[in-house]
Amino acid sequence: MSYPAAPLDPIVLSSQKQRVAYFYDSDVGNYAYGAGHPMKPHRIRMAHSLVMNYGLYKKMEIYRAKPATKQEMCQFHTDEYVDFLSRVTPDNMDMFAKEQVKFNVGDDCPVFDGLFEFCSISGGGSMEGAARLNRGKCDIAINWSGGLHHAKKSEASGFCYVNDIVLGILELLRYHPRVVYIDIDVHHGDGVEEAFYTTDRVMTCSFHKYGEFFPGTGELRDIGIGKGKNYAVNFPLRDGIDDVTYKSVFEPVITAIMEWYRPTAVVLQCGGDSLSGDRIGCFNLSMKGHANCVSFVKSFGLPTLVVGGGGYTMRNVARTWTYETGLLVGQIVGPEIPYNDYYEYYGPDYQLEVRPSNLQNANSKEYLDRIRTTVLENLSRTKFAPSVQMTDVPRDAPEEEPEEDSEESKDMRGGSQEVWDSNIQKDGELSDSEDEGEGGRRDIRNYKDEVGDTVMMDLDEDEDDDDTPAASDKP
Fold first, then answer.
1. Which backbone phi and psi does 22 adopt, to 5 degrees?
2. For the chain, what are the domain ranges?
């Protein structure tokens, strides 16, 4: 028997003021995976239009991040794989038949026009957001173009080619001894978990549908190995989970992670396919149920990188990411949708809310209690924070800070959507360029440490090492 989802308590805004940096590149909505493909980058442009028309730009700084380079992508991905992504196009793909099989590029992850540029935008936003967090230039960084959590070291998977999340976490690890990754996408965050499965430097926590569902990983017993044992947390869920039930497992688990692991930075993946009515998903979260997770994570006051992810009913993804952007800057938006470039998508009621359906909740209290108990027991074995030997981070070179109201450092307040897009597109403007150079995002030092084969940022390397590739050198 189906029954309506239980209502959620109203979200209460925190009085704590946090500086928010928002990354958006207006080119991102121009890319298309192909006719009939469920992944539509256009949803990011729709969300941005709502963000602008609700006036949220007044409460945050907006940047167009410099796209990730091949060299930056190779901090995690293999050279061969990144080189393939940079060269393959719809016109020459027949020449790369063997590589497409090798790198799992084809049906779910098609070759499309601008594929590499799309990956660069996603990766650049997450890396630059992490760089700003590292240097204390913001408290929260938002990159809705990111969140592509299925991409592997040398393989595309689940509509994801380059794992911007792993790249962002590697950047955070240059300054932070412990990073927690939280994933509320309906799919298991397998690519991120795999990258950090053998280390205690990163704890991964994924709440996802499990059982005959892509990618088929993320069972309760998957807890990490070696130094990473108990630092991978998986909470397998069944169809139809609603707001109250999700809250009843999410908040205790995240609270336990904060108490036991004591992370110094957070990455939150906000996949919108866990929303009710998603084209692919099978959960029954309302917009506010989904946003409650964002609000709860924000309440811990840690440096936080917020990224997008899945979500295949575009109007609902745009609604939810807009509402969550509001929460992150301390403003409740809605309930009416303001007029915007994509107003017709939100008919017939033109309301912001994404409501739950009468989908039956297959998650019994007994089932969830058993999973939660096991997860909390595993967390208690982490013996508080891991003992991580940290070296002194090289001091940043002296630099001239831009003037308070300069175009490089502040958002261009006011103006139409066209004005905003033209401003954001300009090279050298609204860019996080001061986070490059020594100590910044482009100050790359690579090494392989305890994270298996994952390439990490080398904090121990001699700053004067002439063999260190310069950021400007083309691979």
1. -120, 125
2. 20-380
Instruction: Give tens-digit pLDDT for 239-292.
Output: 999 999 999 999 999 999 999 999 999 999 999 999 999 999 999 999 999 999
For residues 346 and 47, the answer to whether their CB atoms sit within 8 Å is: no
As a residue count, the chain comes to 475
Residue pair 334/320 in contact by the 8 Å Cβ criterion: no
The arrangement of strands across the sheet holding 140-143 comes to: 61-63, 20-23, 140-143, 304-307, 265-269, 179-183, 202-209, 232-237
Alpha-carbon span 196 to 204, nearest angstrom:
8
CB of 52 closer than 8 Å to CB of 420: yes
Which is catalytic among the residues 77, 150, 176, 208? 150
Q: How confident is the model at residue 4 (pLDDT cuts 50, 70, 90)?
A: very low
User: How does pLDDT run across 129-158, given as a tens digit for each residue?
Assistant: 999 999 999 999 999 999 999 999 999 999
Tokens representing 191 are 């690519």
What does the pLDDT look like over 168-203, one tens digit per residue?
999 999 999 999 999 999 999 999 999 999 999 999
150 has catalytic annotation: yes
The verdict on whether omega for the bond into residue 335 sits within 30 degrees of 0, i.e. cis, is yes
Q: How many CB atoms sit inside 10 A of residue 449's CB?
A: 15
- State the burial class of residue 456 (Cβ atoms within 10 Å of its Cβ: 0-12, 13-18, 19+): buried
Q: What is the 3-state secondary structure (H, E, C) of the chain?
A: CCCCCCCCCCCCCCCCCCCEEEECCHHHHHCCCCCCCCCCCHHHHHHHHHHHHCCHHHHCEEECCCCCCHHHHCCCCCHHHHHHHHHCCCCCHHHHHHHHHHCCCCCCCCCCCCHHHHHHHHHHHHHHHHHHHHCCCCCEEEECCCCCCCCECCECECCECCCHHHHHHHHHCCCCCCEEEEECCCCCCHHHHHHCCCCCCEEEEEEEECCCCCCCCCCCCCCCCHHHCCCEEEEEECCCCCHHHHHHHHHHHHHHHHHHCCCCEEEEECCHHHECCCCCCCCCECHHHHHHHHHHHHCCCCCEEEECCCCCCHHHHHHHHHHHHHHHHCCCCCCECCCCCCHHHHCCCCECCCCCCCCCCCCCHHHHHHHHHHHHHHHHCCCCCCCCCCCCCCCCCCCCCCCCCCCCCCCCCCCCHHHHHHHHHCCCCCCCHHHCCCCCCCCCCEEECCCCCCEEECCCCCCCCCCCCCCCCCC
Q: Residue 207 corresponds to which tokens in the numbers above?
A: 């709440």
Q: pLDDT tier at 7 (50, 70, 90 boundaries)?
A: low
Q: Name the CATH superfamily housing domain 20-380.
A: Histone deacetylase domain (3.40.800.20)
Query: What is the value of pTM for the model shown?
Result: 0.84
